[in-house]
Structure formats: C-alpha cells, structure tokens
C-alpha cells in the first residue's frame, strides 16, 4: 500500500516488510492503522510462509510522527472511548508486536515521535538515520502517555530520556538515542535502508529456532524477574532438534549451515 493510509505487508524471501503509511501526515497512526497493525502481527505470529525476520518502516522518509490528532476530538473526551482506544487498539497492537516470535528490525528515518517511539520500542533492533528525531511531546497537548505505553518506552530508552520526553516534551537526535542504548546504529540518511536490509538478511540466515527461543527468554524477562525454575523448565527442549544438530555439524565440517 502506498500513497494512502494504512499498514502494508510485503514479503521478500525470508524477510517481511511492514510499512506505516499515512500520506501527508508523516505516517501518523490513525485508529484504523492501529487495528491493521495488530492484524498484521497477529498473522505473523502464526506465519507458515518461511519468514525469518520482519522490518518495520515508514513510507516516504519518515517513520511515524505520532498519533493522527485530527481524529482525537471524536473520542478522547469520554473515559470509556479513551480507554477503548488505548487498551483495545493501541496496546493490543503493541502487544501483538511484542508477541511476534520473529526478530523485528526498525528502520527509523525522519520523525519517530509518540506512537512512533512506542512502535520502535517493540522492535528488537533499531537502526536510524542521522537526522532522525525522537520524542513524545504530548504534554503540550494536555494529556499523558498511557501507563503501559509509557512503561514500554521507559524500558527501551531509559529513565533519563523517558522523563525528559514525557515531563519536558524533550525531542532528541539519533546520536543521543544511540548513546542511551536505544539504537544499534546511526547512519547517514541515505544508507539506512541498505544497512537494515543487510542486517535483516544476516538474521534470516541464522537458525529460526534460536531466534524464537531467544525471544521467549526476552519476553519472560520483560514480564518481570521470572524465577530460575520458570526459565529453565523448558530451556533445553531443543537438544535433539534438527537445527541444533545441523548448526554444530556444519561448524565441525567448516561449511555454511542449512537452516
């Protein structure tokens, strides 16, 4: 989908590209887009198309400028509809991303604000262009970030930047987010797409079972200090798996593994 408003999904080999598109609004998220984002990631959770990695990106040189504020007067001033929006649309979509068993790579260009930084926070690996801007200046609009969304962003970018973004409407450049550990790489703007493609291709060549199990561990840690018993109960079930055997056999034979 291009030039319109929505979420598109395109597969290239073992890599899926999820693109945010809201023409003329820097890909600001509408309510329909949140619902579409959830549907796309619900589908990816049950994927049987041989996917190994998902790239999340925006259309036209921007990642996502936040929520589409033109819709807000129609629902934000009544508690039930406001709660419905945040819990059953926004958070449901973010949770679907968090639940995705595939590695997620964010391709961040231009504006990454509000809803954009929430979506990026759900990704496992984030690369950005040098001119990208990050923030959540919604206090200027008279409302806070919803609690679970704020906790997600706080966990991804750290306490200092989260407090500045939410309490002081701070907007920061890519280098500051790299220094905080949010970004893996900051690249010249015209090199971001190629770097993301290279990284996704590298991930797609690795064992999908290992990626899935690593993501299960990350999810358990995010859920809050799981016990050693919980972590270890099924930690070694992969012992007799084909991928485990193939990876070690290939290493010993000095050949490329066939996952």
Give short descriptive properties of this protein.
single chain, alpha/beta, six-stranded mixed sheet, three-stranded mixed sheet, 9 strands, globular
Write the layout of secondary structure elements.
Elements (H helix, E strand, L loop, with lengths): L4 E8 L2 E8 L8 H15 L7 E6 L20 H20 L5 E5 L2 E3 L1 H7 L3 E5 L3 E3 L11 H11 L1 H9 L3 E3 H6 L5 E3 L4 H13 L3 H17 L3 H5 L9 H11 L7
Parallel strand pairs: 2-3, 3-4, 4-6, 5-7, 6-9
Antiparallel strand pairs: 1-2, 7-8
In short:
It is built from ten helices and nine strands. It has 259 residues and is an alpha/beta fold. Helix 1 packs parallel to helix 2 (79-98) and helix 4 crosses helix 5.
Provide structural commentary.
- The chain has 259 residues and is α/β, with parallel strands linked by helices.
- The two termini are 31 Å apart.
- It contains ten helices and nine strands.
- Helix 1 runs parallel beside helix 2 and helix 4 packs across helix 5.
- The chain has a six-stranded mixed beta sheet, with helices on both faces. It has a three-stranded mixed beta sheet with strand order 5-7-8.
What pattern of helices and strands is seen along the backbone? EEHEHEEHEEHHEHEHHHH
Helix count from the secondary structure assignment: 10
Query: Which range best describes the helical content: under 10%, 10-25%, 25-40%, 40-55%, 55-70% or over 70%?
Result: 40-55%
Strand tally is: 9
Strand arrangement, major sheet: 1-2-3-4-6-9
Mean pLDDT, nearest integer?
Answer: 92
Strand content: 15-25%
Sketch the major β-sheet. Answer: 6 strands, mixed
Shape assignment: globular
Radius of gyration, in angstroms, nearest whole number: 19 Å
Structural class: alpha/beta
End-to-end CA span? 31 Å
Low-confidence stretches: none
């Amino acid at each position: 989908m291009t030039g319109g408003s929505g979420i598109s999904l395109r597969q290239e080999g073992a890599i899926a590209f999820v693109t945010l598109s809201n023409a003329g609004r820097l890909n600001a998220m509408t309510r329909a887009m949140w619902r579409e984002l959830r549907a796309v990631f619900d589908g990816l959770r049950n994927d049987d198309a041989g996917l190994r990695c998902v790239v999340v990106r925006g259309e036209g040189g921007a990642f996502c400028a936040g929520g589409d504020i033109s819709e807000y007067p129609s629902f934000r001033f009544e508690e039930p509809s406001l709660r419905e929006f945040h819990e059953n649309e926004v958070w449901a979509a973010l949770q679907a991303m968090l639940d995705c068993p595939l590695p997620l790579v964010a391709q961040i260009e231009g504006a990454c604000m509000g809803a954009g930084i929430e979506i990026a926070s759900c990704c496992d690996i984030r690369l950005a262009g040098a001119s990208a801007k990050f923030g959540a200046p919604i206090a200027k609009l008279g409302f806070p970030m919803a609690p679970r969304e704020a906790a997600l962003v706080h966990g991804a970018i750290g306490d200092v930047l989260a407090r500045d973004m939410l309490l002081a409407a701070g907007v920061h450049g890519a280098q500051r987010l790299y220094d905080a550990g949010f970004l893996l790489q900051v690249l010249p703007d015209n090199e971001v797409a190629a770097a993301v493609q290279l990284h996704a291709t590298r991930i797609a060549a690795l064992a999908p079972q290992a990626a899935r199990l690593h993501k299960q561990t990350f999810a358990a840690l995010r859920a809050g200090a799981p016990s050693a018993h919980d972590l270890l109960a099924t930690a070694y079930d992969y012992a007799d798996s084909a991928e485990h055997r193939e990876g070690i056999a290939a290493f010993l034979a000095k050949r490329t593994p066939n996952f």
